[in-house]
Amino acid sequence: HSSLSKLLAGLLGTFRSAPPLPRLNQPVPHRLCTFRGQCVVAMASTASEITCEQLEGMMADGRVPIFDVRNPDELEAGRIVGSVNIPVDKVKDAFSLDVENFQDQFGVEKPKVESTLVFYCQMGRRGGTAATIAKDLGYTRAMNVIGGFQKWTGED
């Protein structure tokens, strides 16, 4: 009995003196609920997220740059008025362009890094990826629309 106590005490001492495990920057599951009470478990991204209702308010208050990161063939289903299509796999290169080349390529002014900008896709995952990429490039106010275009159109 005493040898077991010594063994456990030794293991506990080793555990207490061990350095803390590093925290990994990985998404964690959380519940997302709509106003209608429908809930799903989703993975949190490092991007800031906004609801469709919040986006509507931002649009009513003035011009907010909105970027549709779906692939061109997905645009046949429609798009949010005023949005600019930059597929998610092109976001890093696009937002790394200088102001003049961005304007030439996409037909809109390149947002300033301190601007609020909004990304969306079909359901929210690629929009989150795009917003995270933009944040990594210094756009600290990049946001993703929760539920994406599907939520925007009420087809969720």
Any descriptors?
156 residues; five-stranded parallel beta sheet; two-stranded antiparallel ribbon; alpha/beta; 6 helices; 37% helix; 17% strand
Helix-strand layout with pairing:
Layout: H1 2-17, E1 29-33, E2 39-43, E3 48-50, H2 52-61, E4 66-68, E5 84-85, H3 91-96, H4 99-106, E6 117-120, H5 125-136, E7 142-145, H6 148-152
Parallel strand pairs: 3-7, 4-5, 4-6, 6-7
Antiparallel strand pairs: 1-2
Number of strands: 7
The overall average pLDDT, rounded, is 81
Cα shape:
elongated
Proportion of residues in helical segments: 25-40%
Strand order of the largest sheet: 3-7-6-4-5
What is the beta-strand fraction?
A: 15-25%
Distance between the termini: 61 Å
Structural class: alpha/beta
Rg result: 22 Å
Main β sheet profile: 5 strands, parallel
Order of helices and strands: HEEEHEEHHEHEH
